[in-house]
């Protein structure tokens, strides 16, 4: 058994072990499924309600990804602006911090007022929830670019855009991807908040209705779906990260292409 | 007394770089520090000048003024008869750190100037996989890095990185080559090897070179002229022509004439070290 396989085996065993212990505790102390359903109950519910849950899962995933895409786009633009201009840094940072501190749940009603209930406010909530870490990391990456690297470009009479494109942005990629892993989970939070408050579709809405009818196993099934989606996207971005920023960790896979 | 002098705007064929009464000060008001006092320096086309002097005497400042990274507080910097920045002059620069971009291969690093500098810039898309690539490979081979184009910077040793950095400074056939202590961080043997390579590169490409160094042997080996600077404020106090024939060898640096020259320069520099702050 090689060490890598052993490590994988151990981590898988611990994850499965977590759910087994949960199951056993519920059985042992006879916990009511109204309080904490057993994992097996959750899985059974998931299986039985799958046809009904599927469209909601797709809706939540779609909303999150669209919101996340907007978040990335606006985040990079704002990050570049803040990271490369002193004035923008001084004005936009306080605004951004202030905005990030507002609970998004308080913003949703305003968005509903503007755009009506449904997908649009959910997309916007997802976007603004995941925006902050992206902006901060992109700005930090750009602001900490080594002056020597910029000097190399300046002696070649490169334009600001050349410098940004060839030095600033590639240099920022490790920071950017680190922020994406945080941001993608935040995007889910944003979507679900909005769906819970103001939508008749999506996992958030399903969980809201389920909890009002005390169908706790269904609530947990919803949570499980969200967790799996979150982990899935996290893994996807980790995969892209290794491909794009392998130079920062000096991965040999990266050097081999 | 300062004599106001009209700058000579006549393009000159033999003077490629000319500094006329250039000064540079940092800061404002009482805290103002004069990094460079009135300095004049003329460098002929295809010449090889070394700037030596104690730390903080403004050697690198002169390089930055000539490349336009810094702007003179007063005086004029001319390149090819025009004020610096007025005309696109191809400049190559190598620093003490190799400053290669870690996210692209050595080949792409060396090719970077071709991507940025006109007229290569316009041809970059068509030629990067053919003509430009061959050019990079040929230059890499000349410095002993044949077959390392696909490697990434972190996979190379310090000496190899510095060779690649020299290639990057030369790939776009610069008219002006600025070397800011490029061999300073290397071990003795790698350094001597790179001196030979540098001399060969200069003899084949004939750029105008301005080399900043702490090493008098290096200056004597490579340069046609050695300018000694003093610090606080920085100014050029001596200008020596190096007479040894080319190609020079390491053995040459042990001859009595060479030793006499470096000893004289050494004494000048020791004397030029910043005097104890006068009240």
Summarize this, please?
The complex is a heterodimer of chains A (257) and B (279). Chain A has 257 residues and is mainly alpha-helical. Chain A is built from ten helices and no strands.
Characterise the protein shown here.
The complex is a heterodimer of chains A (257) and B (279). Chain A has 257 residues and is mainly alpha-helical. Chain A has helices spanning 3-28, 39-84, 86-101, 104-115, 119-143, 147-155, 160-198, 203-212, 216-249, 252-255. In chain A, helix 2 (39-84) runs antiparallel to helix 3 (86-101), helix 2 (39-84) packs across helix 8 and helix 8 (203-212) runs antiparallel to helix 9. The relative contact order of chain A is 0.12. Chain B is of the alpha/beta class. Chain B has a domain at 102-169. In chain B, 34% of the residues lie in helices and 23% in strands. Chain B has helices at residues 59-67, 106-116, 120-127, 131-142, 158-170, 188-205, 216-222, 256-272, and strands spanning 15-26, 33-44, 48-52, 74-79, 82-83, 91-94, 176-180, 208-212, 225-230, 235-241. In chain B, the strands form 2 sheets. Chain B has a 6-stranded mixed beta sheet, with helices on both faces. In chain B, strands 2-1-4-5 form a 4-stranded antiparallel beta sheet, covered by helices on one side. In chain B, helix 2 (106-116) crosses helix 4 (131-142), helix 2 runs parallel beside helix 5 (158-170) and helix 5 (158-170) packs parallel to helix 6. The model of chain B is unreliable at 1-13 (pLDDT under 50). The interface between A and B is medium-sized, with 23 and 26 residues.
């Amino acid at each position: 058994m090689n060490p890598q396989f052993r490590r994988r085996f151990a981590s898988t065993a611990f994850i499965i072990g977590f759910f087994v212990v949960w199951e056993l505790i519920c059985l042992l102390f006879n916990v009511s499924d109204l309080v904490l359903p057993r994992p097996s109950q959750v899985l059974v519910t998931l299986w039985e309600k799958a046809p009904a849950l599927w469209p909601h899962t797709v809706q939540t995933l779609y909303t999150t990804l669209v919101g996340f895409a907007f978040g990335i786009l606006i985040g990079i633009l704002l990050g570049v602006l803040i990271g490369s201009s002193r004035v923008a840094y001084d004005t936009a940072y306080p605004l951004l911090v202030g905005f990030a501190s507002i609970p998004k749940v308080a913003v949703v009603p305003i968005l509903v007022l503007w755009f009506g209930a449904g997908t649009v406010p959910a997309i916007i909530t997802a976007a603004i929830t995941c925006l902050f870490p992206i902006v901060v990391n992109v700005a930090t990456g750009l602001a900490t670019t080594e002056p020597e690297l910029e000097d190399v470009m300046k002696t070649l009479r490169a334009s600001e855009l050349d410098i940004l494109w060839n030095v600033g942005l590639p240099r920022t990629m490790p920071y950017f991807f680190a922020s994406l892993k945080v941001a993608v989970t935040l995007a889910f939070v944003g979507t679900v908040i909005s769906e819970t408050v103001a939508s008749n579709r999506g996992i958030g809405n399903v969980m809201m209705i389920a909890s009002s009818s005390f169908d706790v196993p269904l609530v947990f099934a919803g949570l499980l779906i969200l967790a799996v989606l979150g982990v899935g996207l996290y893994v996807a971005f980790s995969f892209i990260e290794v491909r794009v920023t392998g130079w920062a960790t000096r991965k040999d896979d990266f050097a081999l292409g | 007394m300062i004599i106001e002098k009209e700058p000579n705007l006549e393009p000159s064929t033999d003077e490629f770089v000319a500094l006329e009464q250039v000064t540079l000060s940092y800061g404002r008001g009482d805290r103002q520090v004069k990094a460079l006092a009135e300095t004049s320096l003329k460098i002929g086309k295809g010449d090889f000048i070394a700037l030596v002097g104690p730390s903080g005497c403004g050697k690198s400042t002169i390089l930055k003024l000539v490349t336009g990274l810094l702007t003179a507080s007063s005086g004029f910097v001319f390149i090819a008869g025009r004020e610096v920045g007025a005309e696109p002059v191809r400049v190559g620069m190598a620093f003490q750190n190799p400053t290669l971009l870690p996210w692209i291969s050595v080949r792409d690093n060396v090719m970077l100037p071709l991507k940025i500098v006109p007229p290569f810039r316009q041809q970059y898309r068509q030629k990067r996989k053919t003509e430009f690539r061959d050019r990079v490979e040929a230059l890499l081979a000349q410095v002993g890095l044949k077959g390392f184009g696909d490697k990434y910077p972190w996979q190379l040793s310090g000496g190899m990185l510095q060779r690649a950095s020299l290639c990057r400074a030369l790939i776009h056939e610069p008219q002006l080559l600025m070397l800011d202590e490029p061999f300073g961080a290397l071990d003795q043997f790698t350094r001597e090897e790179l001196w030979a390579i540098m001399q060969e590169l200069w003899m084949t490409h004939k750029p105008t070179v301005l080399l900043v160094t702490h090493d008098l042997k290096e200056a004597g080996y490579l340069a046609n002229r050695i300018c000694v600077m003093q610090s606080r404020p920085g100014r050029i106090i001596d200008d020596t022509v190096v007479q040894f024939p080319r190609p020079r060898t390491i053995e040459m640096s042990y001859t009595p004439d060479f030793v006499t020259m470096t000893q004289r320069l050494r004494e000048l520099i020791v004397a030029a070290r910043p005097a104890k702050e006068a009240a």
